């Protein structure tokens, strides 16, 4: 879903699982979000780095699983924001809701009947929250 919006508008690169971001050094802090976005302006001329991406994504998406502890999820959010991530979305499948975090310390809860937008990080991105939890056949 994010990939389609990003690719169609040449906004940057969207990734799903597997790409780690080095958020801090000495000691290294590496986070691997469930999905992420890096704006076109931040992509090195040499292309996608091999191994971990140096620095934070512009958008990090975390999907909470039943065995995730709330404290661990909040630690990830803090790590992303401290490293420069401009937007963090935490999806809560059990309640079909999500929390939007921004660097100014704001946390906004959205229920299934509300709409999620990408703000200035993903301009033009707007979807009903319920579609994020739709099961595809």
Account of the 3D structure:
The chain is α+β, with helices and mostly antiparallel strands. The chain has a single domain, classed as tt1808, chain A, CATH 3.90.1570.10. 16% of the residues lie in helices and 36% in strands. The protein contains 2 helices and 11 strands. The strands form 3 sheets. It has a 6-stranded mixed beta sheet, with helices on both faces. A 3-stranded mixed beta sheet has the order 3-2-5, with helices on one face.
Total separate domains: 1
Our count of helices gives 2
The largest pleated sheet is described as:
6 strands, mixed
> Please, what is the average pLDDT?
90
How much strand? 35-45%
CATH superfamily placement:
tt1808, chain A
| CATH topology description | tt1808, chain A
- N- to C-terminal distance: 15 Å
In short:
The protein is built from two helices and eleven strands. It is α+β, with helices and mostly antiparallel strands and 137 residues long.
Task: Name the descriptors.
tt1808, chain A, 2 helices, 3-stranded mixed beta sheet, globular, alpha+beta
Describe the secondary structure blueprint for this structure.
Elements: H1 2-9, E1 12-16, E2 21-24, E3 29-31, E4 35-39, E5 53-54, E6 59-63, H2 70-83, E7 87-92, E8 97-101, E9 107-110, E10 115-118, E11 122-128
Parallel strand pairs: 2-5, 6-7
Antiparallel strand pairs: 1-4, 2-3, 4-6, 7-8, 8-9, 10-11
């Amino acid at each position: 879903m994010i990939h389609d919006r990003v690719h169609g508008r040449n906004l940057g690169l969207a990734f799903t699982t597997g790409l780690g971001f080095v958020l801090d050094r000495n000691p290294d802090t590496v986070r691997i979000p469930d999905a992420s976005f890096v704006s076109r302006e931040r992509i090195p001329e040499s292309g996608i780095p091999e191994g971990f991406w140096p620095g934070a994504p512009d958008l990090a998406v975390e999907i909470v699983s039943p065995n995730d502890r709330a404290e661990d999820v909040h630690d990830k959010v803090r790590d992303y924001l401290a490293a420069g991530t401009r937007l963090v979305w935490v999806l809560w499948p059990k309640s079909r809701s999500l929390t939007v975090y921004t660097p100014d310390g704001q946390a906004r809860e959205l229920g299934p009947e509300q709409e999620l937008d990408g703000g200035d990080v993903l301009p033009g991105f707007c979807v009903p929250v319920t579609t994020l939890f739709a099961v595809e056949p």
